Amino acid sequence: MNTFFSIHELKNYAYIIIGSIFLALAVVGFFAPSELITGGTAGLALLIHYITSLTIGTIIVLINFPLILLGIKFLGKMFAVRTIITILLISIFIDFLTQVVHLKPFIVDNALGAIFGGIFVGIGLAFIIKGESTAGGSTILAKIISSKTEMKPGQVILIIDFMIIFSSLFILEDTGKVLWSIISIYITAKVIDVMLTGNLNKKVVYLVTQKTDLFKELIRNELGPQGTIIRGDGLFDNEDKKMILIVVKVDKLQKLRELVKKNDPDGFLIITEATEMLGRGH
Predict the structure, then answer these.
(1) In the chain, what are the domains?
(2) Distance (Å) of CA 177 to CA 39, 196, 279
(3) For residues 145 and 129, what is the distance between their CA atoms, to the nearest angstrom?
(4) What are φ and ψ of residue 228, in 5° steps?
(5) In angstroms, rounded to a whole number, what is the distance separating the alpha carbons of residues 258 and 160?
(6) Residue ranges of the DUF2179 domain (predicted)?
(7) Residue 111 contacts by C-beta under 8 Å, 6 or more apart in sequence?
(8) How far apart are the first and last CA of the chain?
(9) Whole-number pLDDT of residue 282
(10) What is the separation of C-alpha 83 from the centre of its chain, rounded to a whole number of angstroms?
(11) In tens digits, what is the pLDDT along the chain, a chain of 282 residues?
């Protein structure tokens, strides 16, 4: 079957369509009515829309067209095709909702518009990312710049979003709208993280102890059977070190602390976030 119409690609297009609808609803229903902005191409398009008579969808296409031509060799054939489709869908849906449906604002309020607009954008972008695509704009520039420099794509996107927000200070008279727009971008980032990595309730714990045999038994009985013993060398010659690596639910952390305090006062815990888990049902 042609790659364009394979089951995998059709699934990607379904994600892209859903994501594009959420983005369009965010722009038309929350951001535009309250004159708020968001990050990336949509944010820049909103700024230009506020000072011109061009439709938001038209501006998105105009901004992204040269960027796609510039970055197409960095995207790969199918990725470029999906990006172009995504940009066109977002533009069409936005203009359709405003020019044809005349969708009424969901809310005209800075705070609620920023919060729920940020949520909708986050959901939309998460679906688009699941569809192995991008909404264009800053993502394309980030790929190009990061491939030519030591900057990470996330850093480039953050800089671009900051420039858009800074520019809004000269266009939006209400500084409060700018501050709420910043909060909206933060909400968007958190929603994307939750949708792509899950809302994990677990921590990664490193237990440094000389009593690994004892704690192997205690952990199996009290916390569960999964864990790994890491062996290594200390800073001194012939100094063997052992460390137990386990993933612990947040509600069981206190139990683990009590076990260590009771059975090995010289042992200590290093606790970090589990940002993503794959395998074993995750």
Answers:
(1) 3-197 (no CATH), 202-273 (3.30.70.120)
(2) 14, 28, 43
(3) 20
(4) -135, 135
(5) 47
(6) 228-279
(7) 180
(8) 31
(9) 45
(10) 17
(11) 456 667 888 888 999 999 999 999 999 999 988 888 887 888 888 888 888 888 888 888 888 887 777 767 666 677 778 888 888 899 899 999 998 988 998 988 899 999 999 999 889 988 988 887 877 777 777 767 766 777 766 667 778 878 888 888 888 778 888 889 889 888 888 888 777 766 556 788 888 887 888 887 888 877 776 667 777 666 666 666 678 888 877 777 777 888 888 888 878 888 877 665 554 444
SS3 string, the chain, reads CCHHHCHHHHHHHHHHHHHHHHHHHHHHHHHHHHCCCCCHHHHHHHHHHHHCCCCHHHHHHHHHHHHHHHHHHHHCHHHHHHHHHHHHHHHHHHHHHHHHCCCCCCCCCHHHHHHHHHHHHHHHHHHHHHCCCCCCCHHHHHHHHHHHCCCCHHHHHHHHHHHHHHHHCCCCCCHHHHHHHHHHHHHHHHHHHHHHHCCCCEEEEEEECCCHHHHHHHHHHHCCCCCEEEEEECCCCCCEEEEEEEEEEHHHHHHHHHHHHHHCCCCEEEEEECCCCCCCCC
- Partner residues linked to 241 by β-bridges: 232
> What residue has token string 């609803």?
25
State both tokens at 194.
């939750």
Tokens standing for residue 89: 């869908």
Token couple for 151: 């900057």
The tokens describing 216, both together, are: 């192997």
